[in-house]
Amino acid sequence: MWRSLLARTVFGLVLSFQGLARAGQETPAPDEPPLPEFVLPTVEVIGKDVPDAPVDSAQRRDPTGAITVIDARERAGEARDTAELLGGSASLVVQDSGGYGQSKSLVVRGASSNGVLVFLDGIPLNGAGGVADLSLIPVALLERMEILRGAAGARYGAGGLGGAVNLVSRAPSSRLLTSGEVTYGSFDTVMAHVAASGALLDGQALVLLHGGRSQGDFSYRVDELPALDDNPLTQEVRTRNDARGGGALLKYRHGLDGGGRVDVLAELSLEDRALAGTVQNPTASRRQDQTRLSLGARWGRPFGDTGEGSARGFFRRDWLDVTGGTSGVDSGAQRYTVGGVELEGRVVLGRNALAVTLAGSSESVTQAVGGQAASWWRASVMAMDELSLFSERLKLAPSLRVERVGHYSLLSPKLGASVDLGHGFGVRANAGQSHRAPSFLELYIRQGLLLPNPELKPERALSVDAAALWRDDVWSVTAGGFAAVYENLIAYELYPPNLAKPYNFAAARVWGAEVELEARPRTWLTATSSYAWTRTQNRYGDPRYFGKELPYRPRHKWVGRLRVGPDWLNGRTEVLVQSAQLINRVGEARLSLPSRTWVSVGASSTFLHRPDLTVSFDVKNLLDARTADYTGMPLPGRAAYVTLAVSLDPSPSEDSHVTSPP
Predict the structure, then answer these.
(1) Considering the entire predicted model, what is its pTM?
(2) What is the per-residue pLDDT across 68-112, written as a single tens digit (0 to 9) for each?
(3) Are residues 108 and 221 in the same domain?
(4) 104, 131, 254, 611: most buried, per Cβ within 10 A?
(5) Is 81 exposed, middle or buried (CB count within 10 Å of its CB: 0-12, 13-18, 19+)?
(6) Structural domain that includes position 570
(7) Does residue 540 fall inside a structural domain?
(8) Chain mean position to CA 636
(9) Is there a single domain that holds both residue 109 and residue 258?
(10) If residue 442 lies in a helix (H) or strand (E), which one and from where to where?
(11) How far is CA 279 from CA 182, 299, 387, 631, 636, in A?
(12) Boundaries of each TonB-dependent receptor-like beta-barrel domain copy (predicted)?
């Protein structure tokens, strides 16, 4: 198919340019706007505005929210995919179905992956099924990730039951910069990207090409007769785990009179991967071929000393082809299209900072099987008032979004508050309501043995959270709790004789606690840690499920990370501990995924300058802990990778030898 050929072409171009550079170690040009001072993870600074952040950034959209910002440049060369970076944050659980290129989605604070919104520079990435697949977003594209945990409906719209993630792509430079990186490792995995940035037509431009592939097969041991004690394990090989893909990112930035700016983005992603199916129903030849084209443009400018505004337009088209299925189950080709505009303004009037957002979009999906098609419009208006009192030590942030999604009318209010107690201490609290309208697939499109249900109601979440904060020049700590009630949750139930159909069932409860810690006592020493304790309870009236924990929600998750050393030689280690999780609603312990402890270690050295040459070595899952995905398929064990990166800045400057801080 032409998309597979194009993916191979892009991948070939990437490998042919691997002698160029790594932009993750670029020094921003003096005329570029500085990035917000966020690190991994960032603990909120109470009572302090972030003047350098754009009006539509997470910290400006929700000034009292539970926000973590991850600087992807600090992890350049060591993370294999976007999900790996996000998985280190509190209350974020990655649902992984395999290695490189296999589907990856997020569960945030107990909300399903279709209740978490994901954006790329403000362009929505959730597809027709309501789930955003993180495997289509390579780390090479990203500059930072903005994560909002909790009710996100008021600020981001329908779908944000558990939170929202905005992936911010790399910014172009006014200086000529070239960069490249190539990685090779376990399971015959190869990844690479090249990038070039510089001045163009009175502005700055960035071109980035990326590609990769993985054979993916690996061996594992299985107990074929678990009911018998001391039964010998059988060696098996996990197949149908291969994937390949590539893509491109084009960005252009142009400054305007009066401090305004225009940003234009075009992003193409292509992926072809095998689909293994489930343990009970494995597939022999099923494959998925997916292409995504995203286009976006944003204009923004200040108005005097107290106002600022922005306008954004976006378009996204997904092509999804699934082949090799059995008769009556194959879904065939699917096309999903979304496009829209968003206007946002903010003005400071005395103690009040008023923000208003107007948004409208259109969505459509077509399915080859049966000539099925559906489309609808979305429209919303949002208003927020950020009220500052007592010399800005107390902030109140009420907001309200009124939204029309298809034939559903949704109301999403939120109230946030923060208090700066002085000496680095503060507290924040939020309460809000969010909705998720049923997806196109749940409402209208039959997929094999899954039937649609046009009578579905929107899901609703009522959420509260609160946290105490402390920060100084070395330490930052956040500790708090959260709770949510989910109503009209959608789940597929058996529809006799052999079909399944989605229905709304009563409710579920989620509550828990989060702790985030960061320490930077030296420029060459960084330590971070996050812990989340999450409890869930099914409130569905069926006695088989009532009071049971929800599946795929581990109670405990802890991540600790340590990085030591300067750029010329540094080492790092990361430990992720995640408790067992159920795989069905009955709550039987034998039907669960076991707890896991993943230890990863690595080292990097930038041993040459002008051009900067960096070599990295990483071992993932050092202890070879074996576990399975949410369908029961085994996941890869220990893996090792070597990365070579080069960056070149031919323009003379005083800081040309400065690299990114460790």
Answers:
(1) 0.87
(2) 988 888 887 777 788 888 988 888 998 888 888 899 999 999 888
(3) no
(4) 104
(5) buried
(6) 168-648
(7) yes
(8) 21
(9) no
(10) helix 440-443
(11) 34, 49, 54, 7, 15
(12) 266-622
